[in-house]
Amino acid sequence: MAVTINRRDFLKFAGIGGVVFASGLGWPARSHGASANPSETEDFYFVQLSDTHWGFTGPEANPDAAGTLPKAVAAVNDLRTQPDFIVFTGDLTHTTEDPKDRRRRLGEFKEIVSRLKVPDVRFMPGEHDGSLDQSKAFQEFFGPAHYTFDHKGVHFIVLDNVSDPRARLGDAQLQWLQEDLSKQNPNSKVVVFTHRPLFDLYPQWDWATADGSQATKILLQHPNVTVFYGHIHQENHHMTGHIAHHAAKSLIFPLPAPGSQPKRAPVPWDAGAPYKGLGFREVEADLKQAKYEITEFPVMRS
Amino acid sequence: MQRTIARLAPLAVFSVFIVFCGLTLFSSGAAQTSERIVKITAHKFEYEPSEIYLKVGEPVVLELISKDVTHGFNIPDFGLRADLEPGETARVRLVPEKAGTFEFHCDNFCGIDHESMSAAIIVQ
């Protein structure tokens, strides 16, 4: 008897990924035949990588700072089924006050990630990339800092809460967001990618967006929204009304849990467990079950 | 008439004395209830002083200046923030209502060690 096993089940049985986190999107389950376009009923998955901080040096936090990103790229390329697309949620590079160094780092980063097999790769700046020059250098390499795209029936919105060094989206972008959402079908699925949390996770450590509550107010008008972000260098899951917010691990060093110690400082490298706390994730859009499944992956398989 | 004036003169002098003293006391009282000025200087990537001591119920005005680039002042526990532009003085009024240590930080990304730029108000 032949047994059919899908990619998600394979991951579970093989124990490849970390804990699977199911995020209900509140989507109304799509009735058969509801879409005229078959591609809009097809499950898909994407990979989120975040906070690679190319150019960082600090052996106490990561003695393999120059090797971690290439290893992560290789790990993604080794995935049995390649994702539909890959997204980097900011802090591609570690900040530098020298504009030439900034461009050099962005160029090196771009060259490394060009080795990814998947051609569809999306980028956004983090404050390390864009807050000192309003993302001017970032845009030279990667294009706009906020934009939208659609994939298999899901509307993706990339929000920029770093180009203003005060961690603001700004009135113009908020208006743009409102106008964009108003064009969406009320039952459409919306996913937001951003760098900082849109809610006040821990403002004492700059883990917030100054006008994030205004964005959330706009997003709450739509019934089907999920947010994926970076910045805090660890997994975190939070609900604002019906909106789920999921923070991703970093690929350079982990940070402590919000407010768990007096100062925000990198978690020291554990020589006994190299790359501990680092990794990337798969996000599987399960349209029939109306949920996302998040699977965490380490940089290196043990 | 002269006798009356002579009799009232000490009273008038006493009254003037009382009024003077009252004004003095009022003035003194006004000084006691006015806001204390606390000066804070920001520069990459520190605030000076790094610890500011206040008393519960004491109204203060923080006068903040930046010596180099635009910094921020954000004290979430008080719900207050300000931009610190070089060459300008930002004033933040507050009255601490409870004792404790309240951190504030720069929320205007200012450079490589921005994330370490913080200090504390200690209310006793």
Structure keywords:
heterodimer, A: 302 residues, alpha/beta, Purple Acid Phosphatase, chain A, domain 2, 12 strands, 22% helix, globular, B: alpha/beta, Immunoglobulin-like, 4-stranded mixed beta sheet, 3-stranded mixed beta sheet, 9 strands, 26% helix, 40% strand
Write the layout of secondary structure elements.
The complex is a heterodimer of chains A (302) and B (124).
Chain A: H1 7-14, E1 20-24, E2 44-49, H2 65-77, E3 85-89, H3 99-113, E4 121-124, H4 127-130, H5 136-142, E5 147-151, E6 154-158, H6 171-182, E7 189-193, H7 212-219, E8 225-229, E9 236-240, E10 243-247, E11 280-286, E12 291-297
Parallel strand pairs in A: 2-3, 3-4, 6-7, 7-8, 8-10
Antiparallel strand pairs in A: 1-12, 2-11, 5-6, 9-10, 11-12
Helix pairs in contact in A: 6-7
Chain B: H1 2-33, E1 36-43, E2 46-48, E3 51-54, E4 60-66, E5 71-75, E6 80-84, E7 89-94, E8 100-105, E9 118-123
Parallel strand pairs in B: 1-4, 3-9
Antiparallel strand pairs in B: 1-2, 4-7, 5-6, 8-9
Could you characterize the architecture of this molecule?
The complex is a heterodimer of chains A (302) and B (124). With 302 residues, chain A is α/β, with parallel strands linked by helices. Chain A is built from seven helices and twelve strands. In chain A, helix 6 runs parallel beside helix 7. Chain A is globular, with a radius of gyration of 19 Å. In chain A, 44% of the residues are buried. By secondary structure, chain B is an alpha/beta fold. Chain B has two domains: 34 residues; 88 residues, Sandwich (Immunoglobulin-like). Helix content of chain B is 26%, strand content 40%. Chain B has one helix and nine strands, in the order H-E-E-E-E-E-E-E-E-E. In chain B, a hairpin with a 4-residue loop joins strand 5 and strand 6. About 15% of the residues of chain B have low confidence.
